[in-house]
Amino acid sequence: MKKIISILLLLTTIACAQTKKQKETSLKYIDFELPILNSTESFKLSSIVGQKVVLLNFWATWCPYCVKEVPDLKAVYEKYKDKGLEIVAVNIGETNKEVANFVEAKEIKYKVVLDQKAQVARMYGVRGIPTNFLIGLDGNIIFAGYTMPDEKIIEEDLPKEQNSKTKKSTKERR
Question: Can you tell me the distance from the alpha carbon of 65 to that of 53, in angstroms, rounded to the nearest whole number?
Fold first, then answer.
């Protein structure tokens, strides 16, 4: 029994450690260019890094955990889209039609790109989905995990002028 409890404690510790902020790693983002869903244009990650904090979400429509995460992604997007956050959902291995139907049904408004051969997923070392990376303004990966980063981590890394404007306008309304 003690052995089972020890193993459970170890697994719990490992799982919790995955969700903590990883600023100390200071790994730089890896640039990529992928087609944008329902578009002839492509999206290049370096076009927004440095201007916005980026939440990179690797997912698929058939993944139940990915589907469960969509409402949280939508809420975070709505809350922070005007404060310096960009969400880029990287769909792995599915067709434009499959993804478009899902995105329409779920009313997803954030950017969705297609990694049909999973090349970008391999570059980022994605082993399971959903996998999320939070990329700071400096281009460093400040969070990596199978869950979404805590909103405190997101808020902490948003552009400071956006944060101060938001705080000021909130105070003015009171």
Answer: 24
Give the model confidence (pLDDT) of 63-86 as tens digits: 999 999 999 999 999 999 999 999
CATH number of 22-160: 3.40.30.10
Question: How far apart, in whole angstroms, are the C-alpha atoms of residue 45 and residue 52?
Answer: 11
Q: How far is residue 157's CA from residue 68's CA, in Å, rounded to a whole number?
A: 25
Domain boundaries, the chain: 22-160
pTM over 0.90, yes/no: no
For every residue of 28-70, DSSP letters joined together read EP---EEEBTTSS-EEEGGGTBTTBEEEEEEE-TT-HHHHHHH
Task: Give per-residue pLDDT as tens, 8-48.
Answer: 444 344 444 444 444 445 699 999 999 999 999 999 999 99
Contact 28, 140 (CB under 8 A): yes
CA gyration radius, the chain: 17
- Confirm if 74 and 108 have CB atoms less than 8 A apart: yes
Name the residue type at position 166.
T
Rounded distance, CA 69 to CA 87, Å? Answer: 13
